[in-house]
Amino acid sequence: MKDYEVVIGLECHVQLLTQSKLFSPAKNNYGDEPNTNVDVVDIALPGTLPVLNQKAVEFAIRLGLALGCEINHTSVFARKHYFYPDLPKGYQISQHDQPICGPGTLTFQTKDGPKSIGIERIHIEEDAGKNIHVEGGNSSFCDYNRAGTPLLEVVTRPDLRSAEDAMEAYKTLRALVTYLGICDGNLQEGSMRADANVSVRKPGAPLGTRTETKNLNSIKFLGQAVEFESRRQVLEIEAGHTIVQETRLWDSNRKESRALRSKEEAHDYRYFPDPDLLPLNVSADEIADIKASLPELPVQKLNRYQEQLGLGAYDASVLIAEKEMADYFEAALALNANAKTTANWIINEMQMSPQITPSQLGELVKLIDDRVISGTIAKTVFEDLLSNPASRPSDIVESKGLKMQRDSGALQQIIEQTCKQYESEVAKYKSGKTNIFGFLMGQVMKQTQGKADPVEATSLLKKYLDG
Ligand code: ADP
Ligand code: MG
Q1: Which ligand does the CA of 245 lie closest to?
Q2: Ligand with smallest separation from the Cα of 271
C-alpha cells in the first residue's frame, strides 16, 4: 500500500426537503404506507406531463452558491434511459451536459488543517421507487412513494487522497446541506447516499482505472469501502492483473464489495433533452435573491466563533460540525456572556446530555459567570439537573444553599483555623516552598464544602500567609 496513492471522487445524492415531488404534486415524505404518495406522473400514466418544482431549483442554487459554484443561467433536463421495475417511465429525468451548477470548491477540516477539493458539478434529478424483495418468498413488490423525489447529485473532482479525507469531506457536505435547510441529512433513512469512485496509482503516474462502489449509506461504510477497494486494487495490480472499470456493491455485513456490473457508458443511456420540459432559465436577480437569503454557513460560524467569541480552533470546529450543536450553543449563550465556559460545558462536561435544555445550561453558566456559584459547585448543580430535568439551576442553588459564601469574616476565621491545623505546611510556605499554597487552598475550600468564593479565598489566604 505504501507505494501507491489512492484517488477518490465522490458522487453524493442529496434528497431535498421539498413538500412535493420534483415533477408532481404528490407528497415527498419518508416512511408512509407504500404507494400512498403517488401521482399519475410518478407512475408514468400515458399523457401525463411533468411540472418542475420551483423549490427544488432554489435548493440546488442554494447549495451551488454555498460551494462557490458557477450557477448556469440555462440548464437542461435530459432523459436517462434504463429498465428497472422501480422506474415506470423507462427513463429517469436528470440533467446531463447542461447541469444547473458548474465548478466549485468544498473545504473541510482535517488534523493537518483545512483542505479543499474541486466540485465538478451539481445537477437536479428525480429518484426512482423502491423494490422490496420478501426474504424466502418468491415475489417482489414495488413501492413508488420515492419515485419522483427530488435529488441533487454533487460530483466531486478526483481530488481526495484517503478514506479519512473522503469521510471528512462527506461529513462537511452533510453539515452544509442541513445548515442550508435543504436536506435533513438523515443517512439511515437514505436522505444522503454516496457512490465512491476509487483508483490507485504510483505517485506521479497518470490516473488509474477506477471502480464505483454504490450503496454507501453511512460515513463509516464510505470509509470502509474506500479502504477495502484501494487494498483490493493494489493486490490485483501487484499480482499482475489489470483493474476492470466496474460498478461494485458494498455489503456492510461482510465488510466487502463485489462486482455488480461492468461500467456502463454515457451512450448506453441514450441521453437526450426531455421534450416535455423547457430549458430551465434562472436570472441573475433570482440568483442574487437566493444568495441574500443564505443563512450563516458553517465556515462563517467557524471564523466568527474564533474571531468574535474568542474560542479556540478546536472548540469552534466541534461546535459547528453539526447544526444542532451550534444551535444549542447559541441558544445557551443567549443567556450569558461567557462563550468559553459555555463551549467548555457543552464539549467537555455534558457530552450533549439531551435532557438538559440550552436555557438550563445558559443559566448555569451565568451563575458561574456572575460568581454566584463556583465551577465545582456547578457540577453538583448539573448532576441535580440530570435527575430533576424540570428544575431550574437557580432554584437548585437556592434550595440547597449552594451559593458562594462571601462573608469574609467567616472565611477569615476558617483560614486562620486551617493554617493553625497545618502549621508545618505553613512553615514550608514561608520558607519559600510557595507551591504548597495549592494544598492549603484545597483545605480551606474543603472546610467550606466548596462554597467559598475561590477568588476571595485565594486573596485572603495570600494576605494571611504573606502578611
Ligand atoms: P460517470 O458519470 O460515468 O460516473 P463522471 O465523469 O461523472 O463519470 O465521474 C464520476 C466520478 O468519478 C467523479 O466524482 C470523478 O471525480 C471520479 N473519477 C473520475 N476518474 C477517476 C479516477 N481515475 N479515480 C478515481 N475517481 C475518478
Ligand atoms: Mg456516475
Answers
A1: 1
A2: 1
